[in-house]
Amino acid sequence: MKATVTWVNGEMFVGESPSGNAVVMEAGEKKNAVGPMEMILLGVGGCSSVDVVSILQKARQDVIGCRCELTAERPDTVPSPFEKIHLEFVVTGRNIKETQVARAVELSAEKYCSASIMLGNAGVEITHGYRIEEI
Fold first, then answer.
1. Maximum distance among all alpha carbons in the chain?
2. Which fold is adopted by the domain 36-134?
C-alpha cells in the first residue's frame, strides 16, 4: 500500500489513499475538516461495521441498517493516543436474531477488523456492544 498526504496550508492536509480517493484533514483549534485522530476513530468504526453487516447478511439476517456509535478516551497530554474505544452497534431490521448479532460483533472484534485488532495490540482498550432495533 502506498498513500500520500500533502500540506495545503495552516494545519490542513489532503490525503490520497491507495485507491485514489482523497480526504481533507485538519488539526488544531479551527477545524474545517476531519482531524487525523478522528480519521483513526472513523476507520475503526468503518472497518468493524463492514464486518458486522457482511456477517449478518451471510447469516441471512434481514438487516435494513447498521450504525456504529463510537466513544473514545484520550489523555490531556502530548502525545494524546487513544486509551479506550467503545463501539456500540445499532442494528436495524426485521426478525434479527440476537445470537447472530453477538456472533458478528465478536467475529469482527476477534478475527476480522484489522484496525481494532491493531489498536488493541498497541494497548488501546477496545470494547464492543450492540442493540437491535426491530422495524
1. 51
2. GMP Synthetase; Chain A, domain 3 (3.30.300)
